[in-house]
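Possible regression after last week's pipeline update?

I re-ran a chain I had predicted before the update to compare outputs. Posting the input and the new output here so someone can diff against the archived version. Not blocking, just want to make sure nothing changed silently.
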Amino acid sequence: MSAEDKRAASPRDEEWPEAEKAEKLARGAALKWASGVFYCPEKLEGLGQYRSRETQRNSSIQSRLKSTVQSYLEGVSAGLEQLRSAAQEVQSVCQDLGAARWALLDSADRFQGLQQMRALMAEHVQLASVVQVLPQLFSVHEVFSHTLQLLRGQQLLEAHAELMMMEHLRDDILSQLHLRGLSDAQATVLSYFGGLQELNESLAKQLWDIVGSSLRLVCEDPVLFVTAVRIIEREEKIDDTLLLEATFLPPGRPKGWRQKFYHVLRETITGAHFHGTHADTEGPGLARHLAALQKAIVSELRVVKDLMVQCVPAHYNILSVCTATYHQALSGHLQDILREDLDKQALFLLLEWALRVYHSPEMMGHPDLLPEVDVSALGPLMSPELVDQTERKYVLKVKASVLEWMQRTLEVEFKEWFRDEEPETDHQGFFQSALPVIVMQMLNENIQVASLISDSLQQKVYNMALEELEAFLSRLREALVQCGKEHQKDRTVPKYYVSYLLAMLNNNLTLSSSVSSLHPDAACRELPTSLLAALDRTQKKACQLLLEELLLDLQPLCLQLPSRKWLAGSQLVSSMCEVIDKYAKDFSHVRKPIFTLLLTESELVVASQYLRALMQKKMVCKSEEERGQFCNRLLQDATQLRELFCGLGLDRSQQSLEAVFALRELIYLKDPALLSLEVLGFITKYPDVSDEHISTLLDLRGDVSKDVRHMVLEMMAQHPQVLPESYRPIFSTILVPAPELPFCLRKGKCA
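New output (post-update):
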């Protein structure tokens, strides 16, 4: 390519780079094809054929391109011609519009005469309208009289038709006056049509009387009720039409008779059953009142569902309206009743009626009312707050009743303790009374009755029952203490004091085992710790009184220990065994866990009293022989007592008498120099022993010098003891008499 061709092609290449690229690709493809075809010399013979064929092909392509370009050019030419024609037509229209504008401007003065003609025409139309209504205006009062006669004859549809005609005439005149701004003339028109107000009131009164008797009329004469509904619907359509136009609202509109229909119907329902009637709040009277309400409401809702629904349009939703009215009226009525001071029977009736009966198949769930009547969407008859408040009132009433009943039961029980006969026994010979059965039956009955209402009420009554049982146990302990005081004054009263204490222990055990059955949830029988503590305190109080009685019988015998007479041989311990055996026979009338507890505590009392007697410093061994005799006596007594308790069923490992054997070893030790080691072993086994106890025991030996005593006490100070958690104290309950202080003056009479 020459330099001129390159310069000529340069602008085109810059403008059409894709064309240059396509041309290069085409040339490259042609060269590749030609080199492939004519690679062999023998193929060069067909060069002419290839050339002619390609020439024909190029000619065909060029002819198709020319025809295509020609068709495009013809289309462009036709479009340009159409644009030229449209421009000429637009110019022509603009000229015509200009001419019309100038023509209108020339004839504007002539239209002013037409304005006067238009005013005369409007006046003519008005006068023609007045002429047309003049006969009706002159007959207004006659129509009033006729309409009043129709109302008196209960021809309500005809009377309402004439009333609508008169109202339409009046409203049309008032509307015309309103549009012309003649407000002064409106008062004259209203005065002329003043009788309409009286007719409206008379018609409305009859309509509301009919609506008020609707439940009876749909059964006896539904035509009258349907007529009233039709009239109300006519008035509603007139109200809707006037409100939509919103240009002029005649006086007395909108009447809103449909809403008035609902209002009268609601007032009728509530007035018939809930207003002006004072419900008897006593149990039987309230039950009759609620039963009457239940019967009346179900009966009337049947009438509404089966008959009244057919007499009113569907959009009235009359069944839903009546159902909601009964529901709301009942809710308010129950609230009014609950404001009274009701007893527990009345409160129970109201809760049962509101939570159970109201939704049951006997009332709102009656088969004749379902499925159309559905009160589930209306909310609860009593709000959750009111239910909770009523339940609390009921629980308080039940609590007062339970308290009174338990107090009476306790008084009867207290009197029985002073009878001249033993308490009754069960089939196993255990002492008992009717107290736990009465108490549990009373509490269980109240809990079961509460379960008929709701789980929440049952839980409240259960909590109250446990609280009252705890309070009852406190009063029972006070009664036991009072009985114990009476017995201290005269041990023959009550005659069977021990037997009734044993019966109370069995009763307490019965309460402990049966109180868990009161829980509403069988899977959860856990009792509050305060109640368990109250049961435990009652058991301990009865055991304490029994042990005090045992102590009173043992003390006279223990006062004789130790003594020379006892040392020489006496029947003191045998007498103690007889007393213990007598009480053990009484203890056999209590159940095993209590029997074991009493036996254990009795053994501790015996051991404590025996050790206390030894600590009273009544005797000091004067010689080694006497000390040996003293230790032998201790061994005999402790062995006899231990064998007695073993025979009664108390294992040696559970006995506190082992302390007597250990004490005997301490006194029997022959070498006082070894006392420190012996005392160390003693305080290790009995860590609650004090310095005073050891000093008293050393005094009892009679052969301990001051140096040895000092060494022993110093050793105890160097080895302080800590009481283990499982240790059962024995020495800490024993008081040692204070030593006599030396007196510096001679004994003699005061001057």
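Follow-up from reviewer: compared with the archived run. Confidence is low (pLDDT under 50) at residues 6-13, 743-751. Marking as no regression found.
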